[in-house]
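Worked example 3 (structure in, sequence out).
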């Protein structure tokens, strides 16, 4: 039970973190985020995909819905952020938060979190997503 409580806390905190980071990409308009992505060599449409993945995925984690799938998506986003964007900045002030979010996402993908989770009310195979 202690582990489930810990996973619940982690799931909710990671969900809130991604939700807020996604909403922040709209701060001042999504156009600034698109320009930032393009400036880093990414297609502009990825700004929309990442932003909506962070917002919808963050909400899903908070609710305990599709935790494994969302966590894998978040892990992929963090690996990309670390190696394509933040690595040159070093650990401190660079990719430390991204690395922690990557580790948390991997843990949630492997362990999920069933306590206070909407996944519990889904039918069949959907429960394990």
């Amino acid at each position: 039970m202690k582990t489930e409580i810990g996973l619940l806390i982690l799931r909710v905190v990671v969900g809130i973190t991604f939700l807020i980071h996604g909403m922040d990409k709209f701060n001042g308009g999504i156009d600034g985020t698109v320009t930032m992505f393009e400036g880093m060599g990414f297609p502009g449409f990825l700004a929309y995909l990442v932003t909506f993945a962070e917002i919808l995925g963050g909400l899903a984690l908070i609710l305990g819905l599709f935790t494994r799938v969302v966590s894998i998506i978040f892990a992929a986003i963090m690996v990309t952020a670390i190696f394509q964007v933040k690595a040159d900045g070093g650990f401190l002030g660079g990719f430390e938060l991204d690395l922690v979010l990557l580790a948390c996402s991997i843990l949630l993908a492997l362990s999920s979190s069933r306590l206070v989770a909407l996944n519990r009310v889904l039918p069949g195979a959907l429960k394990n997503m």
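Notes: The chain has a mean pLDDT of 90. The first helix runs from residue 2 to 24.
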